[in-house]
Structures are given as C-alpha cells and as structure tokens.
Design goal:
With 142 residues, this protein is α+β, with helices and mostly antiparallel strands. It has one domain. 28% of the residues lie in helices and 34% in strands. The chain has four helices and seven strands; from the N terminus they run E-E-H-H-E-H-E-E-E-E-H. The strands form two sheets. Strands 1-2-3-4-5 form a five-stranded mixed β-sheet, covered by helices on one side. Strands 6-7 form a two-stranded antiparallel ribbon. The longest helix has 16 residues. It is globular and about 50 Å long.
Length: 142
Amino acid sequence: MRIYDSRRHRRLVAAIEIVSPSNKDRPETRAGFVSKIAALLKHGICVSIVDVVSTHEFNLYAQLMEWLESADPDLGIAPPPLYAVTLRTRPAGGVRFMDNWYHPLEIGQPLPALPVWLTETWAVSLDLESSYEETCRTLRIR
C-alpha cells in the first residue's frame, strides 16, 4: 500500500509492505525486496513491514539492516521470522538518522500497532490487531 500527500503534488510519504512467501523463498527475491525498501528509505519515505510468513525462516528486516550497514539491538542473534516494523529516516543536524519500531511476532499473540509517519512530526497508528479482527469478521473466519 502506498500513501501519498495530496497537498504536495501527490508525493509518496509512506508505504506498507506485507511480506509474501515469494518475497522470502529465494536469495534474489529477498535481495530485491530489501533493495526496494532501502530505496524508499533513501528518499525519506516511511516504510512499515508486516511479515507473518511462517514457511521461510528469513528475517528480511535483519537482512535490510545488514544491507544498510546498520544494527538494531532488538533483533538479537537469531531474529525471529515473524515481525512487524516501521522505519523512517529523518534529518538532524545535517545528518540522516533512522528510527525503527520493531516488534517480533508470535502466533496466537496480539498484533502490535505501528506508527506510520506522514510528515516528520505527524504519524497515524496502524493497528494491526484491529485490522486482523475486522478482516476475520468480514470474511467470517473464526
């Protein structure tokens, strides 16, 4: 999902990426996904990633951190394959910083809410648990 600022000539300000099994199944598709996210961040676009693919043991967020030569201590030594994260870059004193909101996920546990930054100072909440519950109600899934 892409979010555009209609006041600024439809400038892309945020993206929400739901990982699919095909994003994780081969080294080249993982690299392509990571490259796409890195390019979005480079252009100052806030990115949220939701990865609930349990059939492949890769953590694309950890791979992204390696690609960017960065680190997130919350990942630990063996990052879990299920997670949700929001990332954004922001200028501060002539340098760009990256902010990360990382949440490892567990089957059967509630999903987190993620911030989605629309401007440098304004975010909306992406409530994953409520979205999941509404989808289950709409599709009549118990």
